[in-house]
Write a structure and sequence with these properties.
The protein is mainly α and 111 residues long. It has a domain of 42 residues. 81% of the residues lie in helices and 0% in strands. It is built from 4 helices and no strands. It is flat and about 70 Å long. InterPro entries: IQ_motif_EF-hand-BS (IPR000048), P-loop_NTPase (IPR027417). GO terms for molecular function: calmodulin binding.
Length: 111
């Protein structure tokens, strides 16, 4: 009887793994289709120029107009957004440090 339950558990686990795998494949394919449609809609030249500008931005080389935009003061919304992001990251780091600390630091009970 136990072996039948184990076999059923293994079958259910395999089905779940197959469903997860199928979902990942479907999501990847849908993403591919959307990117392909956007590429056709915007035209191939635009996407190439976008990639080049992204490379330029990431390499640290800025053009004159990009330098001017970088020197401008951030808006109130941008500052609030940056603060919110920083707070989230700091909270994450604190929680991660707390998880890594050994939990043996409690005071021993007196006998």
């Amino acid at each position: 009887m136990e072996t039948a339950k184990r076999k059923n558990a293994v079958i259910v686990k395999e089905k779940n793994m197959e469903e997860v795998a199928a979902t990942k494949i479907q999501a990847s394919f849908r993403g591919y289709q959307v990117r392909k449609q956007l590429k056709l809609k915007n035209g191939g030249v635009d996407s190439i120029n976008q990639r080049r500008s992204l490379r330029r931005k990431s390499s640290g080389k800025l053009r004159g107009s990009e330098k001017a935009a970088q020197n401008s003061k951030p808006t109130d919304l941008e500052e609030k957004s940056a603060t919110k992001i920083q707070a989230g990251v700091r909270g994450f780091l604190v929680r991660r440090r707390q998880q890594k600390k050994p939990k043996n630091n409690t005071t021993p009970e007196s006998s």
